[in-house]
Amino acid sequence: MGAGIALGQAALVSGIDALLPDARRVGSFNRPGTLTILSADGQVIQKIGPATREKLTTDSLPALVERAFIAAEDRRFYQHSGIDPVGIGRAMVRNITQRSVEEGASTITQQLARTVFLSQDISLIRKLKEAALAGKLERQLSKRQILTEYLNVVYLGSSAYGVADAAWIYFSKTPSQLTLPEAALIAGLPPAPSVYSPLVNPDLALQRRSIVLQRMQEAGFIDGMQRAEAEATPLALQPAEPKYWISQAPWFSSWVQQELPDVLSREQLEVGGLTVRSTLNLTWQQQAQTTINQYAPGPMEGALVAMEPGTGVVRAMVGGKDFNKSQFNRAAQALRSPGSTFKLFVYLTALKEGMLPERTVVDTPRCFAGYCPRNFGGRYLGRVSLVVALQNSLNTVAVSLLKELGFDKVIETAKSLGITRDLGRFYPMAIGAYEQTLLDMTAAYAAITNRGIFVKPTPFEEILGPDGQLLWSRRVDGDRGRRAVGSDIADAMVWMLQQVVQGGTGGGAALADRPVAGKTGTSEGGRDLWFIGSIPQLTTGVWLGYDDSRETGNTSVVATLAWRSFMAPISKTLPVRQFPPKPQLQNTYNPAPRKARPAGPAADPGDRNAPGAWSPGTPAAPALPERYVPVPEGTPSTAPPSGPGANPAAPAAAPPSAPPAPVAVPPPPLAAPPAP
């Protein structure tokens, strides 16, 4: 009969246990809405939400902390099996005697079960479940494991989840460094942590500390002298922010949160307990922040993005100088005029259509349907090759190419390289009239460095769920990339961009020990200063300017110097690699036949393509009002292209010594009308 009863009890317990959660899951407990972001090498960048930021282990649990919590919360913890009838009776007697709730009846095991598996509602059903779970916890875990897990999840006020967090937030200490009065104060917080917090109500906190010290003496953990000395000790708080509360890379962290809904479901996000192993290199991130702070003085702002061309992983992202003053991410959210960095799409389209880098064009003052771009300093180089025009960032040549190629082809090229914003069919598009983000422009340049394959930028390597299960992996679920342009075309474009750094406007970005390919950009009046440049392993974009778009009084030379300031120390950690050699392209460009246009009074006097409207002896376009002056890039150079595949062609023709006299035509409108 006894054996039958025992077997029946075992079967009943086993059946109940099967209906309850696995108690061993307490070790992976996370509250909803928690998110941990790690760097690429596993360092904690930030912990977001109601997370336990540091945890105790069974080996690191200090005896003083253990005794304080057992005396305060569950004096018979090591004697009961999850439910303590003796403790319930003692609490009832004490509370009736004192005519107030002086002592609770729930054991530490019950509190752990309630926190991890149940809600905080007060009902008979919940209490029965709590008791059953407490029994299962006692059967599956050791007493020391139960106590340690409880001390890691108990809320202790002021955003402190767990003893280790509380020791830091209230006293700037680790748990092992706590004194008797400090441990007793923390142990007194669980019944009403938001009320008893010493940062909120120091007097109430002292009263709770006295109660805990009394219970520690009653339990035999301390003597009367120790209690008296501890009660006489002042609070001596040394408050600190929760560890990992402040992100080491705040703009990157905000971008991670912005991108998460694109890769996880709403249900996965709501569960919480997510861990993101990100792509960020913390050392590079610190160098990036230092660079922006240095090259954006006063109220000026800046942004920087560094990403790997072949994988799309972002290794550094800075969206401003001080995240505490402004959380606006200028790297991923700010729309700014890209200036001449947009010329990438014009020249790339020219190469796609069969033009060669050596193709010659005429750089001279011209107007296009009433829009009259000007080169920096009013200097024009006459007949030059496309590569020299790009070296010197000649605005008239870029707009002329746009006219010859057609708007649709250039727009198609930009879209293929990740530009998603609408681009109007206006001639100023060629020199950056349509605002873009630094992140998108950097990704486009990275695709060219990646031999024409565009890979979407990502901050994620892996995303793990609450139990450590893999929810998303870049190698499995990430963007595989798509071909935007042919590899030979991309290689030719990279060669041209190398000439910009070796002998053109990007000279300030040159590195002594390795090749650099990139392009400068300066919007009208120097409001936006850009440089986007690459070494074979990394593409980095830099933007500098004011949030209110006032003129900086500078040129993109400053951006090239900022780029070099960031890249010089970074590149020393990377092996020296070369770009692919310049390919031997075939000249397959077939220009569309031009439609004849009538000369004389019917011709547009502002259109210098009209027959007879312009010749080398005709005066140039007039000087424009300041607000119409486009993009200063730097002093033009006539240095011949260098590097593999360069042709030792004669230098480009120098501009005339004296500027031609202006003719009396009205200035063009700021926004040019659509092309006919």
What can you see in these coordinates?
- By secondary structure, the protein is of the alpha+beta class.
- It has 22 helices and 14 strands.
- The chain has helices at 2-19, 63-73, 85-98, 108-117, 124-140, 143-153, 163-171, 180-187, 193-196, 202-218, 224-231, 250-259, 266-271, 282-295, 343-352, 386-391, 395-405, 407-416, 438-449, 474-477, 487-503, 557-571, and strands at residues 35-38, 44-48, 274-278, 301-307, 314-318, 360-363, 382-385, 453-454, 460-464, 470-473, 482-483, 517-522, 528-535, 538-545.
- It has a 5-stranded mixed β-sheet with strand order 2-1-3-9-10. Strands 5-4-14-13-12 form a 5-stranded antiparallel β-sheet, sandwiched between helices. The protein has a two-stranded antiparallel ribbon with strand order 6-7.
- A hairpin with a 6-residue loop joins strand 4 and strand 5 (314-318).
- Helix 4 crosses helix 5.
- The protein is elongated, with a radius of gyration of 35 Å.
- Mean pLDDT is 85; it is low at 15-19, 597-632, 634-639 and 642-676.
Structural class: alpha+beta
Report the mean per-residue pLDDT as an integer.
Answer: 85
Distance between the termini: 102 Å
Estimated share of beta-strand residues: 5-15%
The order of strands across the largest sheet is 2-1-3-9-10
- Quick one: how many beta strands? 14
Total helical elements: 22
> Whole-number radius of gyration?
35 Å
Summarize the biggest pleated sheet: 5 strands, mixed
